[in-house]
Amino acid sequence: MQPKSISEQFREQFQISLADTNDLKKEVYRIRYEVYCQELNYEATDKFPDRLETDIYDDRSLHCLLKHRASGVYAGCIRFVFPDPYQPERSLPLNKVCSLDLDLSQLPPYSYGEVSRLAVLSRFRRRFGESQTPGGLLFFNDRSQEGEEKRGFPVIALSLYLAATCIGMEAGVERVFVLMEPKLARHLRYFGFVFTQIGDFVDFRGKRGPYQIRRQEVENSLPAQIRELMEVVRSDLIVSPTFIPIHNSQLSIRN
C-alpha cells in the first residue's frame, strides 16, 4: 500500500481555521494561558484572572486555531500581527525586546507583519525536550521492520506557521518578521523557510533573535511536500464560512 503523504495525514487528523469570532478567540487565549502562564511560566497567572492570556497586539492580529479532529480539542494557535502605521517603530511585539537592522518607518504601511504567540498544548508536544517550548513538534510516527518508532514530520508547528504564512500572503504582505531561537530558524530552513537574521540576539526566554523572510523567498523555496501541505491549510482557511480576506488598506475581522 502506498504510504499517505504528509498533507493527507494532516487532513485526516487536523483542521485549521481563523479564530475570527469572540468565542474562537477565547479558545486562542485559553491555549496561550495554559501554555505561556501555567506550563512555561512565561507570564504571571495573576495577570489574567479570567484565564485568558491576551496583550495589546491582539486587536491588530489575525489568529489561527488548529483542531484535532478525533478529539475535537483545539490543539494549538498562532497569530499574524499587523503593524500600527502611526507608530511603526513600536508596533510589533519584537520591537519591545530587540533592535532591528532596518527602519520600519521606511517600509510601506501594511507591507509587513510579525508571526508570534505560537502555542501548542502539552499533550500534543510529544517529543523529548519539546515540552519546554511553546510550539513543540508533533511527528507522525512510523514503524521500522524492527518495531522501533522512527520520527516523521513536525506537522503541528509547521502547519501553524503555514497558516500564518497564508494570512500574510492573502494580505499582500511582502515580508514577515519572527523572534525565535536560532535552532528553530535552522529547523524551518530545512523545510524551505529561509529566514535572514536582522538584528542581534537577546536573552529573552532563552537566546532569541529577530528574523525576516520575504514573500518571494517563500514562493520560491518551499519543497513540493510543504507546498502541498500549505495548500491544504489554505483550503481549510478559505472554505471556512468565517474566512475574510485581508487587504492592504485595513484589518477587518468579524466578531
UniProtKB/TrEMBL annotation:
The lineage of its organism: Bacteria, Bacillati, Cyanobacteriota, Cyanophyceae, Pleurocapsales. InterPro entries: Acyl_CoA_acyltransferase, PEP-CTERM/exosrtase_acylTfrase. Transmembrane segments: none annotated. It comes from the Bacteria. This is PEP-CTERM/exosortase system-associated acyltransferase. SUPFAM superfamilies: Acyl-CoA N-acyltransferases (Nat). Coiled coil: none annotated.
